[in-house]
Amino acid sequence: MSSDDGNEYPRVTVVPFKWYHVTAMDLRPQERAYLEQFPDYLERAKVQETRGPCYSVIVPGKGIACSWGFTQMWAGVYEAWMLTSVLVERYPYRVIRSAREEMDKAAIDLKSHRLQMAVNASSTQSLKFAKALQFQAEGVLTSYGPDGSDYVMLARILKRSPDGGSIRQKA
Fold first, then answer.
1. Please, which residues bridge with residue 78 across strands?
2. C-alpha dist (Å) from residue 134 to 61, 97, 156, 164
3. In angstroms, how far is the first alpha carbon of the chain from the final one?
4. Which pLDDT value is given to residue 170?
5. What is the pLDDT of residues 71-99, one digit of tens each?
6. Alpha carbons 56 and 150: distance in angstroms, whole number
């Protein structure tokens, strides 16, 4: 990923995700190709908006950098989804820091001990982004994608402080 533009240091804002954010994003090519496999992706976005906490990072005056959310698998375990736009590459540090902070807050609110996501194995940019968000690769899901492509399962394993509030990556 490239560094933030040296002349611009915009503050980013994290807002609740709305399904129409997907239509406003200048998606990266691989993300756009993925969504094209689902003709009903806007309906899916509407459902995701209601399933669990979902957020978007907005770069003021530029657009939506990324959107993500969580769906509960069972107590303490949540599957994350994420869509990223080209703005992630232009403002990586600000977007990553804001997204990571919001994920930490959500992990506390959800009382989670595991956040996980599956990322297309051929998408090196998406894998880098997930790792920057402190997700660690666990293994390959062979022929997992809708097109039969391999995916990498990544997870953030979280440990609570004794007071139950703060969290940290489990060693």
1. 72, 115
2. 28, 11, 6, 20
3. 26
4. 55
5. 999 999 999 999 999 999 999 999 999 99
6. 27
